Amino acid sequence: MTQYYADLAWLGANGVQAGVVIDVDGERIREVRTGAEAPAGATHLRGLTLPGLANSHSHAFHRALRGHVQRRRGSFWTWRDDMYAVAERLTPDTYHALALATYAEMALAGITCVGEFHYLHHTGDGAPYGEANAMGDALLDAARQAGIRITLLDACYLSGGVDAPLAGPQRRFSDGNAERWAERVSALKPDGRARVGAAIHSVRAVPPHEMGPVVAWAAEREAPLHVHVSEQRAENESCQQMYGLSPVQLLEERGVLGPRTTAVHATHPQVGGIALLGASQSNVCMCPTTERDLGDGIGPARRLARAGAKLTLGSDSHAVIDIFEEARAIELDERLRTERRGHWEAAELLAAATYDGHSSLGWPDAGRLDAGCLADFTTVALDTPRMAGTRPEIAAEALVFAASAADVRHVVVGGREVVRDGYHLLVGDVGTKLNRAIRDVMP
Ligand SMILES: [Zn+2]
Fold first, then answer.
1. CB contact at 8 A, 337 and 297
2. What residues are labeled active site?
3. Gap from CA of 120 to ligand 1 centroid (Å)
4. Which residues surround ligand 1, an ion (CB under 5 A)?
5. I want to staple 346 with a disulfide (CB 3.0 to 4.6 A). Which of 293, 378, 396, 403 is the partner?
6. How many Å separate Cα 245 from the centre of its chain?
7. Inter-helix orientation angle 430-441/92-108, to 10°
8. pTM
């Protein structure tokens, strides 16, 4: 058994407690005690410890675009052209190196589980690799080497737009039809710290009659099912024109929504969309740092939650990788829109970043500091210039509204230390690894 002693820990409904002993047996928490003295031999976690953070929506290779895509004017669609230029160049080896370094950056930011929304499956001309899941396997192995959990959300991607053929690098994304997608995905073999889930890329990329096999695949395995929806008004318009339904209505009609489903973005869910996402108890993953970078708009997070949807958070395009920044943006964007403060409690946003995020990725036994749960936790320093002055009674608020990824000091995943004193114990110099990996894939 291993023992950890946290000066302070955020214990969900029990708030922030002092003197918290976490007993860990193997990869799980055996017991959590509060108000305790530090046991002899326990590893001291200086600062505020919280459950590991879940990054519920990631495209690892977009990390290479940071800075480049901020250089010029444009829209989501011009950004997508830049993104495709990188997608065109990746091989299983260069993708592995880039994903490993990106997941290592996530670990340094306190993220212990990533939902990787994966659609870059095949060779440049669309033919499968000899090993059909070469790209997916590269991502699974990258997460393993970076020491974090992964749910590989393998995305079905069949068309280049609503009723449009595939073009350019999109040919790398397609399996031809949903049956062949299911066949390939069924062959993925995740290890103990990995899961495989399903994704429908979007109503743009999967025609309605091809959604059924993806829904069935996920249902048979009780696996998570994720789908991009209504990030852009243009998607709403073309969907409405083609099918006479909004994207959310179309997904509802095809049986896609439900508690295992995550609607990613839902920035413009349109009339009725909020009620449908809420009534079906779907998760909604908002990615505010990406949505603001792309000029998407502000999603109706509070209204969705009030209707019954569960909020989760993702860094998506990795304009930055900082789940605290995603969390506070939910509240702060709402303030800008409504000209009022106080829509979300810090504890609700932390739940989105921890327990609810993990559940949406198929890890209901992670994201909580509780007996029996997976021993995944993150400690944020309270003696950095940014966090100094934080007292226990305001620690949750300081965390959500001021902490940054750079304040993360220790990270434990499955009972194993991954980050100590801000240093990645498995990967070493993450900056150098990112530099190399990005240099190798940028045009
Ligand atoms: Zn995305």
1. no
2. 265, 316
3. 12
4. 316
5. 396
6. 28
7. 150
8. 0.97
